[in-house]
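Our working data are protein records whose layout never changes between entries. An example says more than a description, so a record of this kind follows.
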Amino acid sequence: MRSRDLIALVALCALLLVGMRPALAAQGDATPAPATPQPRLPVTVTDVSGARVTVQDISRIVPLNPDVTEIIWALGLGDRVVAVDTSASYPPEVQQLPKIGYQRQLSAEGILSLNPTLIIGTEAAGPPEVIAQLRDSGTPVVIISDPVDLQAPIVKTRAVAEALGVAEAGEQLAERIASEIASAQAAAAEAASRPRVVFLYVRGTATQMIGGAGTSADAMIVAAGGINAAAEAGIVGDKPLTAEALAAASPDVLLLLSAGLESVGGIDGLLQIPGVAQTSAGQQQRVLAYDDLYLLGMGPRTGQALRDLVHGLHPELAPASPVAAPGAGA
């Protein structure tokens, strides 16, 4: 090859490499899919009821709750899941799986017809008689605790991972979740404002509740540097929404689930609920709405949801940088 041809070829290669740099950088910025861990089975665990359960096979898993489904996927074992409950929405792959019914209204016959090798869920799964039927079938059933504080995603992740024989992968995921939560709380600590927030759970006109102390919404609001105005007004748990309760709480911000806000016709419909338009939040139309599972699921994305809530409540903070895992709607 002539020297001038060789020089031209080298120059062309250099140009191609320069042109590839942005694409390579973008790939490096993406969050990699979780590696598939190798389960160490059999494993014997003690579930929330005190029962000792031995798990020998996780080839056909039926999670009873959406947060458990998301944890299994985050652990890299989503390909073992054969069905999910109707409230499971993340990751998108779950939409293609058979449904076992709503997590609180399950049917033993439908679940057992799937020939599961492991049934796993939280205390929220039910009704209790169905859980008893599942246990009596001889299929391993592991029910884990379902706390409402910010330790919940960490506790649940470790419990699910232990039952699946991947405790080490579970610890790594739990540490990542804890780090993201701590980072969001650190951002909240920098905020100058402390808005009064009320969480409303609405499903059209049939279900309209206000969230007080001792709820997942309460934990998220307080961790994000807000004041749960409903809890401050003496409301504990979820109570029917009334104009009087809203007046007593006097919120600056209304926090909803995106499906709930949509169910009442958006902000215009929300303002028609008695008492809403009379609050400062209603008058300013300061409303935040996030995907149900993202905000309150207390799963692997809790730290990301908390960070989004921090910046939603405190616009004076610098904008949040994008995260790789989507799931919030406002």
In short: The chain has two domains: 43-181, 194-313.
